[in-house]
Every structure is written in structure tokens, then in C-alpha cells.
Amino acid sequence: MSTVDWKNYEPVLIPDIKDLNKIDVYIKQGGYKAFESVLKDKNKWSGPKSVVNEVKEANIRGRGGAGFNAGLKWSFMPPVDGGPRYLACNGDESEPGTFKDRKIFEYNPHVFIEGALIAAYAMEITTIYVYIRGEYRAYIQMMEKAISDSYEKGFIGKNILGTDFSVDFYVHSGAGAYICGEETSMLESLEGKRGYPRVKPPFPAQKGLWGRPTTINNIETLAHVPAVINRGAVWFKNIGAENHPGPILYGISGHVNKPGVYELPTGVPVLDLIYDVAGGMRNGKKLKAVIPGGSSTPVLRADQLDGITMDSDSLRTVGSMLGTAGMVVMDEDTDMVDVLWRIAHFYHHESCGQCTPCREGTGWLEKILLKIKNGEGEVRDLDLLLDITTQMEGRTICALADAAAWPVRFTINRFRDEFEARCKKSVYALA
Amino acid sequence: MAYEFTKEDLKQIEEIKSRYPAVMPATLPVLWVAQNRFGHVNPDVQKLVAETLGLPQAHVHGVAEFYTQYYKEEKGKHVLDVCTCLSCQLCGGYDILHYLEEKLGIKKGETTQDGMFTLNEVECLGACGYAPMLQVTNDQYVNHLTKEKVDKLVDSLKNGEKPQYEKIGMPQHENI
Ligand SMILES: Cc1cc2nc3c(=O)[nH]c(=O)nc-3n(C[C@H](O)[C@H](O)[C@H](O)COP(=O)(O)O)c2cc1C
Ligand code: SF4
Ligand code: FES
Fold it and tell me: Which residues pair with A309 in a beta bridge?
């Protein structure tokens, strides 16, 4: 199935150029040309809507986890009414296994800034905030510097490049809360409150920051925009997987020889990523399991991976998702009960507690898994766990409850023997 | 103890306020200013933040409580946040945590008697490919930990040397 030619791929999002984080180097490489083009090239662009259309056509599927077409999302912004409109860039990056947006902050911050500026122009936005998790202090400082350099060069501020387009751009630091990556929680946090997700509708495009129209995009999503503007939607669509196209940053961690972030097309075979890109399994061990895109995406057994590629269509055929493309690789010595308990612990710790099924459910999942991990569980506890996950899914304000439920359901289903072996023999098991 | 912002802090707070269309959004950044100044945001510091911004104390308190990075009480001089989450767990995060517990003679969540170190277990810090790792006092990440690297880190912190930023490139590239 895989037709993706990833071996000859030349990175465009984070190319191998020294000091590209410096604005002069970025400009020398053709940086900010895309932004200048949408602002000034009247032959190519007939105003903001034409930019939205090109991005929609490219089908940049949101790199924050949900995979929604970015241009389509932009088109949901209501008509201009003279009041403020916002772009909130999501650099919270807290889903376990995910560590890619920081590479953009560090190695190519201006491609993200330029993408955000183009988005602001396309949606006629007046202020951009980039929300960065508080632990990324080093990257927050790098971004503040990059934004202030961009202000100095006249790409941000009033009457940009002599046009009537003006926009401000600020960094907002988080302070340690995974939930603030959820888009409406992030808005609450930007408004200076606790990060309690909001009930939708109203959607942020209608009522976002301070009740005004707001679009939320992931950092990497926005960083793809300048290339789409420069090279066109068709170029972008021809890279990688058909229904999930473009370059993508894969974060590979766990038991591989060369963990790290790699820029490649979407749709690379999972096994190629492990054995060719990331240098194979550590200590020559056998592959046991892969979590393809952050801790909430369902785990896959090694025997499910033949021919499976990193895009939503292919992963769906084996019951998983691309998520953030933060792939976690596990070898034959991995204890799946321990791993699942640790994932459950994470979601319990990070639940904001607003919804009963999530607050109580994540607590129960962790508690029962701890019991099983300690050899005190019974086989019927496994069915109880599965039952709890059904009671959590789709019944809460935000998707954290689903994110907590999926790994439990799928890890137990796919490694049932291992879980049963850890349980004490129960009446059911003996019967 | 009475807490007060310096003139520079107040100037910075004014600049922060100018980024937003209201005062409340300044709560998180000003709590950061306060923590950078005083090392923590205990109830007295929360009160100062509330008064400086003209916001209810209950609001500032609620925000400070919600976010784990704000220290609601004084911590050790150096706070070691060891990640034991998914990828770090797989790569020995718990061994590092237990090694530090043994080495410092404290359990996670505790502070050494001399007030030098606080040890915490934390959730994913977005450094999963560089596991196991820890963060020092909300600042630098120390990656690819081994017992030897932990020993070195603890010694250098005791000598008043802070860890430097560890640059980790893209393995597919040569120049970065
Ligand atoms: C619990 C939870 C945590 C999330 N964390 C993040 C995150 O850290 N970064 C991110 O970009 N999106 C995160 N998301 C997804 C956002 O809600 C949102 O879909 C995304 O930022 C939109 O940008 P995109 O369409 O460009 O991907 C999270 C969602 C949920 C439910
Ligand atoms: S699902 Fe969980 S995290 Fe999301 S709003 Fe409800 S309680 Fe909070
Ligand atoms: S799991 Fe430790 S940094 Fe992500």
C-alpha cells in the first residue's frame, strides 16, 4: 500500500540549515516571502478568503492530535464586525510521547511565526497569542526573542510592510497543567483562570477569547502554512498519504537506538520508522508493541503492524489513530500492565475534575490497575475496567475522558493474556 | 515576612498587562514574576499579586492552586522534577527517581534537611526521546540520565553551578 518515497525526502519544515533560528538567516533562505506575497501580490491573491481557500485545498490536517483540516477550520470564523479577533497557537505539547513542537521553537521559530501571521491575515485577526507550556522555559525565551526580532523587521505590529494589515503577537506561558492543551482549557488559561474546559457549543470561532471569534491551531500545523503559500496546495497534497498529506514531525521514543524527532512525509510504514529511521530496537530486542501517536492512541501489537503506515486511514484499519505522531516503541521485556497503569495514573493526575465520569472514572481506572499490577487483581476486574471505560466515553465536557479510556480498553483487549496472567484466579476464571 | 515587588518588577507587570484587553489574563504571568522574585507563591505572595493587580485574592489563590509549577510553599534551593511518565518509565525513569531518593535520603515530595533539594515525580515534560530526564527548578532539562550523570548534577548543584542548556539536534541532520 505504501507508495510514499520517504528515503529521498528533503525536510522543508526544519531543514538542515545552521542558525536558521536567526531571523537574518531565515530571511536569506526566502523566509517571510510567503507572508509578503499574501499581503501584497494582488495578482496571486484576491484577499484573505483566497488564502483560506488555498490552505483548505492543501488539507493540512491539524498536527495537535485531532487531524482537522486547518483551512476548513479557518473558514468557520464569522464575518468581520470591527471588534477584536484572535489566533491562539497551541504550544502546550503535553501528551506523553510528544516532543516535536519544541523543535520548531528551537530550530525554525520564524516559519511558525510566519505561518501564524499568514493565518492572522487570512482570518483578519488582530492579535495572536502563542501558549507555551511553562516547563519549556528555554523555548519560551527563544520564542520571545524571535517574536521581538520579527517586530523589529516590521513583520509584526502596525501597518505591516506598508499595508493596512496590523497584528500583535504575544507569548503566554503555562504553568504546569496538561489539560491546558485542550483548546477551550487553553482559552481559560489565557484569560488568567484555572484551565477548566468549556462546554461546546458555542465553539471558539463564535465565542473564544473574551467572547470573541478565536481560532486555535497547533504550532506545527501553522508552521506548514508558509510552504503551502510558496509552493501551492498541490505540492503539499502530493507529499505523503493521500488523505493525510504533507510533511510531518515524528517523535520517536522508547526502546529504539536513535530516538528523536524526524521530519518525513506522512504515511511512512511504522516498521520503517522503527527499523530504518530510528535505528532499530535497542540491544537487538524484539518489538512487542507501539503506541503510534501519543499516550491516548490505542496501542498496537507487533503482529498488527505489517504494511501499516503513519496516517489516519491506515491506522484506522488496525484500530488506532495518528494523534500527535509521537510514537512510543516497546520491546519484548515491556510489562504492559505497568505501562497501562502509568498511563492511567497520568490521566487521573491531569483530570480537571469538572465531570463526574472523568474525575471518578480516571481514579477507578488507576486504582484497579494498581491492584492488578500488585498481583491482587482478579480476572473480573478486567471486565470492570472495560465497563468503566464505556461509562466514561463521550459523556464529558472535553475529550480527556476518552483519551484516558481508549488506552485502557485497547491495551486490555490486545494484551488480555498478559493481564489475566497477572490476576489472581477468580471464580470466573476457574469456571 | 513582608513581600514587595521591586520597581523593575512593577515595570514588567505594567508591560505584561498591556498584552491583554483585561487585567485578569495577567494572573499567570504575574504569578511567574512573583515566583521568580521570591522563589515561591505562598499565600502572602498570592495576596501581593492580588493587590498589585486589583483582583480578588480568592481568584489568585485558585489559579496558583490549579497549576503544578507554582510553588505554594517554600521548596528546597533546587527542585528536581524527575519524569516517570510513559517514555521515561520505559527507559528507566523510576530507577533514576529511586536512585535520587536513596542518594538524597528523602522520599519523593520531600525536601532535604539542609533545604538544598526537593525531589518530585512529575508527568511528561516533552522530552520523551531523551529519556530518562529531569528538570531543575522549573528551568533546565537534564536528559539521557545515568547514575553517573545524576551524581555529577547533584555535586555541581551543591557547588552552586547550574546546569547548562543541553542542545539536542535532529538525528537526520548534520548541521543541527
Ligand atoms: C486533553 C487534551 C489535551 C490536548 N493537548 C494538546 C496539546 O498539548 N497541543 C495541541 O496542539 N493540541 C492539544 N489538544 C488538541 C486541541 O484541543 C486542539 O484540537 C488543537 O490544538 C487544534 O489545533 P490543530 O487543529 O492545528 O491540531 C488536546 C486535546 C485534548 C482533549
Ligand atoms: S472530561 Fe475530564 S478533563 Fe475534561 S472537562 Fe471533564 S473532568 Fe475536566
Ligand atoms: S515521558 Fe518523560 S518527558 Fe515525556
Answer: A269
